[in-house]
Design goal:
Chain B: It comes from Halomonas llamarensis. The complex is a heterodimer of chains A (241) and B (265). By secondary structure, chain A is mainly α. Chain A is 75% helix and 0% strand. Chain A is built from 9 helices and no strands. Chain B contains 10 helices and 12 strands. Helix content of chain B is 38%, strand content 25%. Chain B is an alpha/beta fold and 265 residues long. Classes of the chains: A mainly alpha (241), B alpha/beta (265).
Chain lengths: 241, 265
């Protein structure tokens, strides 16, 4: 095992950039994706029929095609297509439309929106009807029932599943190394190409992913345990019996 | 207050009825659940709706705050007629949502399954609607909430979550939640039917206390003896019709009514 390359500041800066990009992508995709997921769930449960159908088609396509294919589709397909739009190169949008980060984030947001949208839809359906009914019976508006009563309860119910979705998202991010975005895998590939060491860089980034996953799990478990109204029997740090 | 004083108080405070329903008809698909029910709950009185399962009691009660929308008929809550949208045949097809929300703040409900909000504390449950619907400040709502939690004997559990309470305690919190809106009319939908037998009395005790205060209440119950004790008016529902109604004395002494109630009583 040869880790002497770790003392090279160039490699360290690649790794750092890759790590920061990975975390940014995770954050942006998680926040944007979960917001989209709520809209997806709502459209399917409460939207007008044509919208519900459209959203159903969207989730089916996003869940039915490989993430890598989607990434290529948006970056090479849509990205190149936009290039041909006359005048677009002069707009403020142009730098964004050339940025692999933008297309990576877009792809992941849509993907999380589709997968987590179904999770949230299921959770919303399993909130007892009477809780919403009580809200309506006391004069709360539909929007208040949704934001104060229905969604908080639904998210409480599906938080463990959403934690899983976020971990899956983290480990989908290396796919972006294929569209020339500097992430951890890209950094490892560069190090491999220049030092002819295959395992050491991979082992290092595997360790970084594992550590990030552990931190993510602990943070989300903390949120879960501190969710208002938890029953005492469920208050166990490790979800193991 | 002695009971004669209360009766004096009640009869004086009787102004316009808290709710007036006229010829309510409600279908669930092919099934006609309410077949033209007219009902009036005078201010300061207690009315109980009794009857067998499936007679339409709960549906009738749920029409009073429009959790169920009747298909035909008229409804006035707190002197205000509900503005229904109707098709040319007179069938109700919609209503004014703003008016509905405003009136629902005046008619609150206690449910069979309590329906507390599990992610809010006891106090949080009680102050939610006063804050969001009546737009009280948190301070005002909390003062109100504490007062009514005291009233139902749950003030010491104000920071607990519903999952940590017994059924009887949850139902008492639900009653405090309904009281905190200071409604013109309180609706009770079989408030003791989901309770263990030993918990029933603590809830009935609270409701009896409210009746003695002269609160206007409409309740659906299977507790015949309780209904007879606390009610000013009894309504016996049979297959979507009012089979008999009147004071408890009238209803229980009328041979025809007794015949109806025989299987239930």
């Amino acid at each position: 095992m040869d880790f002497s390359w770790l003392s090279d500041p160039f490699y360290l800066s690649y790794l750092w950039e890759g790590f920061v990009n990975t975390l940014w992508l995770l954050l942006v995709s998680a926040v944007g994706g979960l917001l989209l997921a709520v809209l997806v769930a709502l459209a399917r449960l409460r939207g007008p029929r044509p919208l519900a159908w459209l959203v159903w088609a969207f989730t089916t396509v996003m869940r039915g095609t490989p993430l890598l294919v989607q990434l290529f589709f948006f970056y090479y397909g849509v990205g190149r297509l936009m290039e041909g739009v006359p005048g677009i190169q002069e707009t403020f949008m142009w730098p964004l439309l050339r940025d692999p980060f933008f297309f990576a984030a877009l792809t992941f947001i849509l993907s999380v929106g589709a997968y987590s949208g179904e999770v949230i839809r299921g959770a919303m359906k399993s909130v007892p009807r009477g809780e919403r009914e009580a809200g309506r019976a006391f004069g709360l508006s539909g929007f208040q029932v949704l934001t104060r009563l229905w969604l908080p309860r639904a998210i409480q119910l599906c938080l463990p599943t959403l934690t899983g979705e976020m971990i899956l998202l983290l480990k989908s991010i290396p796919l972006v190394s294929t569209i020339a975005l500097m992430d951890l895998l890209q950094a490892a590939n560069i190090i491999r190409d220049e030092t002819f060491l295959v395992y050491e860089p991979l082992l290092l980034i595997a360790g970084i992913y594992l550590a990030t996953t552990v931190v993510l799990t602990v943070v989300l478990r903390f949120v879960e345990l501190n969710f208002p109204g938890m029953q005492p029997t469920q208050r166990r740090w490790l979800p193991i019996r | 207050m002695t009971s004669s004083l209360q009766h004096a108080f009640r009869s004086h405070s009787s102004t316009a009825p808290a709710v007036v329903a006229t010829q309510l008809i409600k279908h669930f698909g092919e099934l006609e659940v309410l077949k033209g029910i007219s009902l009036e709950v005078p201010e300061g009185t207690v009315t109980s709706i009794i009857g067998a399962s499936g007679s339409g009691k709960s549906t009738l009660l749920r029409c009073m705050n429009l959790l169920e929308r009747p298909d035909r008929g008229e409804l006035a809550i707190a002197d205000e007629a509900i503005r229904f949208d109707r098709n040319p045949q007179g069938d109700i097809i919609g209503l004014d949502r703003r008016q509905l929300q405003r009136l629902r703040a005046k008619v609150t409900m206690v449910f069979q399954q309590f329906n507390l909000w599990p992610h809010l504390t006891v106090l949080g449950n009680v102050i939610e609607a006063p804050m969001r619907v009546k737009k009280l400040s948190r301070k005002q709502a909390t003062a109100l909430g504490e007062h009514y939690l005291e009233r139902v004997g749950m003030a010491d559990r104000r920071d607990a979550y519903p999952a940590f309470l017994s059924g009887g305690q949850q139902q008492r919190v639900a009653i405090a939640r309904a009281l905190a809106m200071e409604p013109r009319l309180l609706l009770f939908d079989e408030p003791t039917s989901a309770l263990d037998p030993e918990r029933v009395n603590e809830v009935l005790g609270v409701i009896r206390g409210l009746a003695d205060e002269g609160r206007t209440m409409l309740l659906v119950t299977h507790e015949m003896h309780f209904a007879r004790e606390v009610s000013d008016q009894l309504v016996y529902l049979d297959q979507g019709h009012i089979a008999c109604s009147g004071t408890p004395k009238d209803v229980f002494e009328d041979p025809r009514c007794r015949q109806f109630m025989a299987p239930a009583a």
